[in-house]
Amino acid sequence: MPASSVSHAPLASTAEQEAYLHLQQALRLGRYKPGERLIPEDIAAEIGMSRMPVREAFRRLAADGLVKLRPNRGCVVAGLTLDEIHEIFEIRSVLEGLAVRLAMPRMEAETFEELDRMLERMERAGQTGSSDWVLRHQEFHGFIYGLSGRPKLIRQITGLHVMIEPYMRIWFDYAVKPLSAREEHQQLIEALRSGDARHAEAVMQEHIIETASLIAGFASPGQG
């Protein structure tokens, strides 16, 4: 019997991870709306698994702040209030500013070549109206804070990006994207090129804080 229990553990873990990633992606893309109840039976049938891994995925998503587990209501999509949106961007500004400062010694000529390429990809996505712009934007920021070499910091920042992604997509879909978007990111690259860690940290913080008001203006957050 011990052998049987051990053999099932990896399968359960894999199923839970599959359910978690499936739901996380759906939430990031805005497939489910704030306040919407997630039915484990429906999701399990959609993915092709039992309810148990889905329920375990709900717990992980609740720890991420993406859903809420409520008595008698089950799992409900967590919307962000305007204050919460601003708070997330405030935290992002501090953490990504710190990541920039830590990343500066690791930046080389190839780093800036890659950032230039990423900016070009972001710009092309924006010009075609593709929502890939949001993904390219995340890749740009992720490449920078990934250079910090601090796994816990990187995980925290990544989690904040996941929480805010549905609102970034709303902004991109319904707002006239500011023409200064490329210019702002170009200024950020130049700040990184300067070699002045404190200056680059300040530029990153300002860039993120300024984005908060733009996002909040087009989001329809839940009060949940």
Automatic annotation (TrEMBL):
PROSITE patterns (alphabetical): HTH_GNTR (PS50949)
One annotated GO molecular function: DNA-binding transcription factor activity
Keywords for this protein: DNA-binding, Plasmid, Transcription, Transcription regulation
Pfam family, one: FCD
Keyword match Cell cycle: no
PANTHER family listed in its UniProt record: GLUCONATE OPERON TRANSCRIPTIONAL REPRESSOR (PTHR43537:SF24), TRANSCRIPTIONAL REGULATOR, GNTR FAMILY (PTHR43537)
Name of the protein this chain belongs to: GntR family transcriptional regulator
